[in-house]
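Question (not urgent): is this output format expected?
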Amino acid sequence: MKTKYKIFVVFFILLFGSMNAQLNFFKNEKVAKLKIYKSAEQAHQDGGIILALQLNIKDGWHVNSNKPHDEFLIPIQISVTTDFNKEKNEIIFPKPEDIKLEFSEEPVSVFEGNPVFGSVVKIPKDVELGNKNIVVKVTYQACNDKTCMPPETIIDTISFDVVAGSIAIKENKNDIFGKINFEKIDNSKKESVTTPIKSDEEPIGIWIALLSAFLGGIILNLMPCVLPVLSLKILGIVQQSGEDSKKRINHGIAFTLGVVSSFLILAGILLLLRAGGEQLGWGFQLQSPAFIILLTILLFLFGLSMFGVFEIGTSLTAVGQSSSNDTGFVGSFSSGILATVVATPCTAPFMGSALGFALSQPTVLALLIFAMLGLGMALPYLLLTTVPALVKYVPRPGAWMESFKQFMGFLLMATVLWLLWVFSLQVGAEGLLILLAAFIIVSIGGWIFGRWGNIAKPKPTRVKAMILTALFIIGGVVFAFKFIDTNVTVNQSLEKGNIKWQKFTPDLLSNSLKEGKPVFIDFTAAWCLSCQVNEKVAFGSEDVQKAFKKLGVVMLKADWTNSDAMITKELAKFGRNSVPLYVLYSGKENEEPQILPEIITPGIVLDALKKIGGF
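Got this back:
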């Protein structure tokens, strides 16, 4: 455009624009109005949220595009800012139109009608949970065929909630998001916005979560990882049967407090670590080889005591024992702690959804749900010690208790054996051999205490025995930590039985579904004993194996034995933070996956497979 025409156009815009602006000021008219749509009401840390910004322009008017053909024209400017992220949020502009105006010799690049602009707001992984604000600012110059107005600015604010990764997010379905051309945005930002996986399970509320946690805690007593240790409480209950009711009730309350307080402490640590950005879930402590070293040594020493190598009473491994002082009550409290520690690898029915819900709630509500879980677990023992009608069914103490105690020792050693197997999968055979050597060292300490530390020996002898016992036990622990590499990762074989498992990755899942293949995912861990039982019972079934093979199901195993942030995030997509979790995709487009129960049988698996195809 020639210079003289440019000067004329500028003068024309300023003159008539000023007149028109004054008229519009008194009429209080707006040429364009902004409406904001968001992809969801909630978003995850290290995720994102999509905004669709619709500018509704009055008929007969237009706004200059973001890249007008002439430098003197004022382009539309859009900014999206947040109160939690300094990173610039990219704007996705639609394709503008070129139109011819009376005052312009050449076409002008404009937006007309109801153009939709897009933006992907990235959420940092360390942002605090809670309500967040997004401020959208649009500055535009509106024109019609004859005149232009001075630039005008629209500012609007919307809010959304950043929630924990364990909560499933409901997507706001609206065709307007289909008008955004995401090909123009960085792949890194597109990948940050993930659509949560939906399931057939209905979302639960706080009261359902509390009830589920309570029922799950009761059933937890029957889980294979808990039963061997909790069976030792029978000894304490038997010993208390002859005591007065007040002392018996105090033992039951002490055990209950030990269980509930332990659940609260574990939950508090878990919530604190997750708030710090760690991707952890229920049973997280057993993902640490260092923790298993301490736990196995402790249980091994208890087992030696049950066999009679040395005597520390049964106070630490039973609900409590007869005592004229507070020692028995401390033992009952301690046994509640021990029971909770060994219970965490298991997930009972009702627990999975309750724990997933808990970690998506404010801290107070989350701790309340964990407390209900502990109360449910302690309830049977609390009732046996506080309800007189139940006490009469408890056997009386007698000589038979010594044999029963030794038998319980075998169950305790079975728990140790299971933990050693878990440990070997984490650190390998060399680490297991070193831990077994540490067992020998600490057992010498236990033998010394049993031989010379008993009450029948003179006090100087007992003191020396206690010193030597402490040295051997501490020495065994130090020996284990010094020579075992707890940071090593062992590649585990996926070849089990007639099912050909593949290591789970999001890409493998995505590619299999794109090819229309059915997919089964087993979220598991070696320290989850109920997972191992399910694997033997359900996946060991010949009928189940044949059904998987006939339907061509892609079998993926997500092993959570060691800490794995990727698997934790995948669990969170289903609203879970614990294992086991079993997910079955049909491979059909837009069909939601099936979520199987925590405890599965061949019949349950076959029924799920029948829904995706006849066989």
